[in-house]
């Protein structure tokens, strides 16, 4: 059964303080796509927003957050479920918005330290799917168990993008 794109409906503006984009990782994504022969070649759209997107896909990646509040006792935390929204634009443009999380102790937004491999893997997989390349669905949850997902502290959950996978 071929992959069918669903119409995209924007869910609202995204705050830059609670989200991040990583255009510097496009070269790694392009390298990972080099065997796929996608035409035209995917390009990172740093200014594209919800209104311009053809379709979107939400998934999750891994990383760490540091609490930058000097008055907070919690220094940081790891997460196996960081929400990411991958958007597709005309002519094979794309971008990926990563949603930050809040500190459980003080509820301030944490500073993200991305697991670049999981980001590149998820973005590459989605771009290949959108290009119609058949692939087996990777096992994302396998042995990468982590603490339960904190819905109230996840900016992706607050905006309805997070898959809430436990």
Question: Keywords for this structure?
Answer:
disordered N terminus, 166 residues, alpha+beta
Q: What level of helicity do the residues show? A: 10-25%
Beta strand %: 15-25%
Residue ranges: pLDDT <50 for 5 or more in a row?
Answer: 1-13
Radius of gyration: 16 Å
Structure classification: alpha+beta
- N-to-C SSE string, H for helix and E for strand: EHEEEEEHH
Report how far apart the termini are.
28 Å
- State mean pLDDT (0 to 100 scale): 86
The overall number of domains is: 1
Query: What is the count of β-strands?
Result: 6
How many strands, which pairing sense, and closed or not: the largest β-sheet? 6 strands, mixed
Number of helices: 3
- Shape, per Cα inertia axes: elongated
């Amino acid at each position: 059964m071929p992959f069918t794109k669903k119409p995209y409906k924007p869910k609202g503006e995204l705050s830059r303080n609670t989200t991040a984009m990583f255009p510097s990782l496009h070269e790694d994504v392009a390298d990972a796509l080099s065997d796929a022969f996608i035409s035209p070649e995917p390009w990172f759209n740093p200014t594209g927003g919800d209104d311009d997107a053809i379709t979107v896909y939400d998934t999750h990646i891994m990383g760490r957050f540091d609490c930058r509040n000097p008055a907070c006792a919690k220094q940081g935390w790891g997460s196996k479920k960081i929400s990411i929204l991958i958007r597709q634009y005309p002519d094979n443009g794309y971008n990926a918005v990563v949603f930050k999380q809040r500190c459980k102790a003080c509820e301030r937004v944490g500073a993200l330290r991305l697991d670049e491999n999981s980001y590149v893997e998820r973005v590459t997989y989605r771009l290949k799917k959108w290009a119609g390349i058949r692939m087996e669905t990777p096992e994302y949850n396998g042995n990468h168990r982590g603490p339960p997902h904190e819905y109230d502290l996840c900016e992706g959950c607050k905006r309805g993008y997070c898959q809430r996978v436990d």
